[in-house]
Amino acid sequence: QAHIAESGGGLVQPGGSLRLTCIASRSISNSAVNWYRQAPGKQREWVAHISSDGNTNYSDSVKGRFTISRDNAKNSAYLQMTALKPEDTAVYYCNPYPYWGQGTQVTVSS
Length: 110
Hints:
Layout: E1 4-7, E2 10-12, E3 18-24, E4 33-38, E5 45-50, E6 56-58, E7 66-71, E8 76-81, E9 90-96, E10 104-108
Parallel strand pairs: 2-10
Antiparallel strand pairs: 1-3, 3-8, 4-5, 4-9, 5-6, 7-8, 9-10
């Protein structure tokens, strides 16, 4: 088992940036890590993926604006979000497979 904690969410104006952090209580160096998000009234949506060896993929809705990264020495993964839009508002979840965090709220509003 592993405890996963996300942080870094908050309220930001459109066009702003946030960096989400995901910290695991155990090594995730051999795990792929995904970020998902869930907006009110909508299904959970996959956002970004980083493999154990650092290969990345993004959903079309965030490609070019979000960057996923990881630091295996710190049992951590990150999601750098730029050029944020109101439609990015959601609870963001870290998923270092097969574990899940509790999520962190991101609200993009003026």
